[in-house]
Design brief:
The chain is mainly beta. It is built from three helices and 13 strands, in the order H-E-E-H-E-E-E-E-E-E-E-E-E-E-H-E. Helix 1 runs antiparallel to helix 3.
Length: 210
C-alpha cells in the first residue's frame, strides 16, 4: 500500500509545505509494494581495550506492543492499525523485520532499520508509514510518510533490559510515545483531533541477530 495523504497535513508534520496552504479531502491509494529499509553504513568501532562492542544486525525483529491508550484512541476514532508487509501482527504485537543498522552490545545505542511499516485505516482512507528507523541515540523512531521523513515516536530508554549471547542481542522495555509531528499527521489525514503529542503508543523490544 502506498501512502495515502492529505498533502498539507503530512507536509506540516514533516516540516515542509507552504504558508497559507489548506488541506484538501483525504483520498485513498491502492496497495502496491512494501518499502525497503535504506542501506546504512556502520560507524567504525572505537579502538582500545575498553571500547564497546559494536554489533551489526543480520536479521531479527523489533516488536511493538500496543498500549491501551493508543488502542482506545484508535477505537474511538474508528481507525484500524495494521502491519505493512513484511511486518506481521501476532499475540506480542506488530513485528518489524530488521534490515540493517548498528548497535552496541551492552546498551541501546546506535540505530536499527526496519522493513515494512504501519497502516492506519478508516473506510477508504489510509495512512502508511514505512522504513521505520529506530535511533537510540536520538531517542526517536522516524518513518517515511507522504514522501518525507516523519518523526513518529519519542523513546524512553530509562527502563530498558538488556540480554543476549553470541548470536542475539535483546533490548526490551523501550517506551514509545507519539511525537507532535505524528499527532499532526494522523489528525490531519483522518480529520480528527484525538491524537496528541506524548500519547503512549506502547513498548518496543529489539531482538537483533548478530
Amino acid at each position: 500500500m502506498l501512502v495515502v495523504v492529505v498533502a498539507v497535513a503530512l507536509a506540516a508534520a514533516c516540516g515542509g509545505g507552504e504558508d497559507g496552504d489548506e488541506a484538501g479531502p483525504a483520498t485513498a491509494a491502492p496497495a502496491t509494494t512494501s518499502a525497503t529499509a535504506p542501506a546504512t553504513t556502520a560507524p567504525a568501532p572505537r579502538l582500545g581495550p575498553d571500547a564497546p562492542e559494536v554489533v551489526l544486525p543480520t536479521g531479527g525483529t523489533t516488536t511493538l506492543t500496543i498500549a491501551d491508550e493508543l488502542s482506545r484512541t484508535l477505537s474511538d476514532s474508528l481507525i484500524t492499525l495494521l502491519p505493512f508487509a513484511p511486518a506481521t501482527a501476532g499475540d506480542a504485537g506488530i513485528a518489524f523485520p530488521i534490515g540493517g543498522g548498528s548497535l552496541l552490545a551492552d546498551r541501546p545505542a546506535g540505530d536499527v532499520h526496519h522493513l515494512g511499516g504501519l497502516v492506519f485505516v478508516r473506510g477508504d482512507t489510509e495512512l502508511v508509514m514505512t522504513a521505520l528507523v529506530l535511533d537510540a541515540d536520538g531517542r526517536q523512531v522516524t518513518a517515511i510518510a507522504g514522501g518525507g521523513v516523519l518523526p513518529l515516536l519519542d523513546l524512553d530508554l530509562a527502563s530498558v533490559r538488556t540480554s543476549g549471547d553470541a548470536r542475539e542481542v535483546t533490548f526490551a522495555g523501550i517506551g514509545a510515545r507519539l511525537t507532535a509531528e505524528g499527532a499532526i499527521a494522523l489528525n490531519g489525514v483522518f480529520g480528527v483531533n484525538a491524537f496528541r503529542a506524548g500519547l503512549p503508543v506502547g513498548a518496543l523490544t529489539i531482538r537483533a541477530l548478530v
